Amino acid sequence: MSLSLLVFSLFQAYWIHACVALVVAKLVHNRLKNGLSHIPGPYLASLSDLWLLVHYTRRKGLQERSLHDRYNSPLIRLGPNTVSVADPEAVKIIYGWKPVLQKSHLYISQYVTAEDGSVLDNVSSTRDEAKHSVLRRPVANAYALGTLIEYEPLVDSTSLVFFAEMKRRFVATGEECPLSQWVQMYAFDIIGELTFSKRFGFLEQGQDIGHMMYHTGKAMDYIGIMGQLPFLDEYIRLKGLGYLFRKIRPTGPLMKFTAKQIRDHASSPDRSRPDFLSRFIQAREKYPEVMTDQRLATYANTNVSAGSDTTAIALREILYRILTHPQCLERVLNEVRTILHARKADNVDTMGKPITWAEGQSMTYFQAVVKECLRIHPGLGQIIPRDVPKGGLTLCGEYIPEGTVVGCNAWTIHRDRTLYGDNADEFVPERWLVADEEQLRKMENANFSFGAGPRVCLGKNIALLEISKFVPEFFRRFEIRLVDPKRYTLRPGWLVLQQGLDVKLKMRDKGFFLSK
Fold first, then answer.
1. Does any domain span residue 327?
2. DSSP secondary structure string, 184-249?
3. Domain contains 47
4. Under 8 Å CB-to-CB from 415, ≥6 apart: which residues?
5. 280 lies in a domain?
6. Are 183 and 315 in contact (CB under 8 A)?
7. Are 172 and 196 in contact (CB under 8 A)?
8. Is 129 within a domain?
9. How far is the C-alpha of 95 from the C-alpha of 407, rounded, in Å?
10. Residues 368-417 pLDDT 10s
């Protein structure tokens, strides 16, 4: 018998054994490679990325802090090449400026396809730091703190529609208001107002127009799950089969929705509007090589897809915490009363004018509530992954070799007991008011609600603008009662969504704030 026939015969007889041996060898290699075998963590996680895929598919991201507690380690191995970091001091190393760590391959799952089928990264998803600077430069001023004041009329416009719908649909009828849904519809419409000077109509129609809320939810779930197997996502969506799929369906529902809004915006002759799209178009004059039609669409699409869910999450949590803490509610109402009394002293119309950004910022206790809510319920519920650069890094006293994926989960960092004390799991807004200067600085530096470093969320200031104006004004106009706190539940994923914020509403007496 020839050697080739012998090998073939042996393979026929033992192919199953050979495959098992190869799989075992791969798992052992995963376990021992990269010098990470000494880092504790679930044993199965060290063998295959499938553990992390299942972990996030089962929506277990919020339990990562308990893993750090169980293994009594600031470093936990969540994959053959993935390490979760629980030390607040590590935030500035991993997400800081020197060196800037590249975003991991997970962010490929955030690449989008334009209407012509071309694949584009965006200012959030690009992994190339030099390209990020190029993409960020034309639009950075539109998101700057100094630009906020110009957006206030747009925020007020949508807020007034929201309040009118609350009065018509729920105060007049006495029905329960599913505020979780309505807050997200508000966030969607306000993004439409800010980006296109046009509400999408969610509030007026009282429904999910074009199933956009559904589609954004699915997109976020996709990032959190398929992002754990980026090579598979890249093959299915962007390369390989992706080429075929994009011939059949060039782009998805979110980008189609955004593209339609851009076309509608372009049909208007008014170019003086202060909305985002107008600013993006103006930036073309200075950055024509960047602001192509396709790239313009990615900027607007990022606003629509990322700006609604995250703001809605923050609004839900702030409303829930205030409603479930009577003393907190009383202090917030007292700060609103102080603002209205000041207006009365200045002979300013006390009830017709919405609370301004400056007035919201002057509410010291309320701003502490906002900080505490962003701490106790950050929007993202998974580690934010970065690639360790050439030469490796030292984290928590341990050397982490180059090529390792490292990241912090805000739900872990924000509950660090050494930083926030033994009551780190509790809602205590006062911690932001009684902390000394050094402690406050440490807590501020560990704030991971909007990311950190050069890749901090561009929309941070816009979210804070909406929050600072909407919440005090909502409590100013309405008496709000939570129907059943037990209905309020979390749905963890890439984003940690909430449901069950059901309330009963009454119009607040106009003299309530001026009677004391």
1. yes
2. HHHHHHHHHHHHHSS--SHHHHTS-GGGHHHHHHHHHHHHHHHTTSHHHHIIIIISTHHHHHHHH-
3. no
4. 65, 376, 424, 425
5. yes
6. yes
7. no
8. no
9. 9
10. 999 999 999 999 999 999 999 999 999 999 999 999 999 999 999 999 99
Q: Where are the alpha helices (DSSP H) in 58-169?
A: 64-71, 91-94, 129-136, 148-166
Q: Residue 179 has which token pair?
A: 């505020």
CA 456, CA 450: separation in Å to the nearest integer?
Answer: 6
Domain holding 456, by residue range, is 83-104+144-228+254-514
Q: What is the 3-state secondary structure (H, E, C) of 322-336?
A: HHCCHHHHHHHHHHH
Q: Are 302 and 116 in contact (CB under 8 A)?
A: no
CATH of the domain at 263: 1.10.630.10
Q: Which residues are annotated as a binding site for heme?
A: 457
Q: With 0.70 as the threshold, say if the pTM is over it.
A: yes
pLDDT tens per residue, range 461-487:
889 999 999 999 999 999 999 999 999
Count of the separate structural domains present in the chain: 1
DSSP one-letter code for 495 = B
And the tokens for 147?
């630009």
How many Cα neighbours within 13 Å face the side chain of 271?
6
* The pair of three-digit structure tokens given for residue 110, joined into one six-digit string: 């955030």
Residue that is written with structure tokens 């501020």 in the block: 444
Residues making up the binding site: 457
Q: Give me the residues paired with residue 489 across strands.
A: 499
